[in-house]
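Figure caption, in words: inputs first, then the predicted bound structure.
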Amino acid sequence: MQYLSTRGGIQPIPFTKAVMMGLAEDGGLLLPRTIPRIDSHTLTAWKELSYPELAFEVMSRFIDDIPVSDLKTLINRSYAGFDHEEVTPLVHCGNLHILELFHGPTLAFKDIALQFLGNLFEYLLTRSGEVLNILGATSGDTGSAAIYGVRGKERIRIFILHPYKRVSPVQEKQMTSIMDDNVYNIAIHGSFDDGQAIVKKIFSDVEFKNSLSLGAINSINWARVLAQVVYYVHSCLHVSRHENDSSLAFSVPTGNFGDIFAGYIAKRMLPEGCIRRLILATNANDILARFVNRGDYSLGEVVQTTSPSMDIQAASNFERYLFYLVDREPERVKALMAEFAETGRIDLSAHLDQIRKDFAASAVPEEEVAATITAIYNEYDYILDPHTAVGVKAALDHQKPGIPLVCLATAHPAKFGEAVEKAIGRPPTFPESLTGILERETRCEIMDADVDKIREYLRKNALKR
Ligand SMILES: *Cc1c(COP(=O)(O)O)cnc(C)c1O
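Bound structure (pyridoxal-5'-phosphate present):
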């Protein structure tokens, strides 16, 4: 499989090059040249596969430059550390199927992609003899999941920017208490978007990026999207095991559009109708809900909510969907992204018919997030984290008779204990891996959101070839 940029400015490259490139060198995002199709015969044959076996089947359709046995080993190692044998189990609350994606080491769905990406990087670097300095911005969960993905790995250093005091205390400790020598935490005075803008700027300077062997780990990396496609397919196989109708709707708590974009890829891979609807759920930061409902993709102010991993306006994976929306024409993507960079808005209302075929959307206000946590707890004795609650509320908004709903549970409730306790009157049970975390020793650099200063810091601390 060859990969292309949404902006058309690079020669086609194979999977492993796309992984190491992260953001395309022309400033666009990398996508496979085609989306492979899975017919219903093949899908049925996958029913009895374990999660890692299924992951291999799905991913290998996008990867042809890693030997089969190596890819299998990488996948097996990535999911061996999960604390549930199904990796992404489904639990049932009445008509809702909750897809628990938080059984990895940092208790958020990002582990599913980043455990794999960490192993993949190590493998590719060993093969090539190179080094890698990972640079990423996080609104909370990516940072810790990325750090856990590469901590202690040779040939890799990781630099993670997070918005100072704007992540939950547990999230902050999960990142800053990791003492491996190859881990560098930087707290910036600013928002997640500021951090993301700095990272994008640094990556757009190709010479600098190459001289320091910088690579991305944010959801712009194609390997992350790919790893997330797997659990959509997994759910299709497992929910339909229990019900006659094999057509599903998914509700996805959305920030950077990475997770739901994986759902979009899964939808196009699978036989027609397997994934009937993708429900895009945002918190009060509603740019993507406005996009789906009105074609209005325009920046608002970032507001802080109880679901901080979704406190995002400019969604870094949006351009991938835009590429398909404008019939895969790089010139149109370029023009639209330039307009967005200049004015902070693009009007896509002319495409509303197509957008509505692909997605439904709701923006969920704060009070409804808490009310949803309370209601699900009272009715089913099940505790949602605030991100998951956003998705559950949106799912209920768009429920259709006869179509089973799968709600992606993106974080364990203990990661956001304060908001949960407010909603249900008691703190969620702390899983063993978080015991004592708030008392752990930490290490973190606090800096201004200044691209030059961050660049200087990288120059000083990056691993040299
Ligand atoms: C990152 C994250 C999201 C949003 O996922 P995107 O891929 O950025 O849309 C939702 N919930 C949690 C808990 C997250 O960590």
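DSSP finds 19 helices and 16 strands in the chain.
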